[in-house]
Design goal:
This protein has one domain: Sandwich (Immunoglobulin-like). Helix content is 17%, strand content 39%. It has 2 helices and 7 strands, in the order ααβββββββ. The strands form 2 sheets. The chain has a 5-stranded antiparallel sheet with strand order 1-2-3-7-5. A two-stranded antiparallel ribbon has the order 4-6. The longest helix is centred in the N-terminal third of the chain and has 14 residues. 22% of the residues are buried.
Length: 109
């Protein structure tokens, strides 16, 4: 079930306002060589968020190694997503992203 875009935009703005990493955090690109999925970390002090954006019209399988960024065994807490498929939130995050979808999660070790 897709979230209506106006509702999703409101949720996104609210999340950004209450999450310092999303508002003022440093930007670190994760997968610069993937032409379909934009993936990055936003960090502020001791907090981090993972943001995945499927910019394509097709489903994309995403698997990320966050260990080079200080997360040897990352755990993801979903903050906001535009799709409802199962996400492997442990160690090496993996998911099948729907077309033009968004995934935002808080990252901890």
């Amino acid at each position: 079930m897709k979230i209506p875009s106006l509702v999703f935009t409101g949720q996104l703005l609210a999340l950004r306002q209450k999450s310092p990493p999303l508002l003022d955090g440093d930007y670190t690109s994760i997968n610069e060589n993937d032409p379909n999925v934009l993936a990055y970390l936003r960090r502020y002090k001791d907090e981090a968020f993972l943001v995945l954006l499927n910019m394509s019209a097709g489903e994309q399988k995403v698997s990320l190694d966050l260990s080079p960024f200080g997360f040897a065994a990352p755990r993801l807490s979903i903050a906001l997503t535009s799709f409802h498929k199962t996400i492997d939130r442990h160690h090496r995050p993996r998911c099948a992203m729907e077309p033009y979808s968004v995934f935002i999660a808080k990252v901890t070790n």
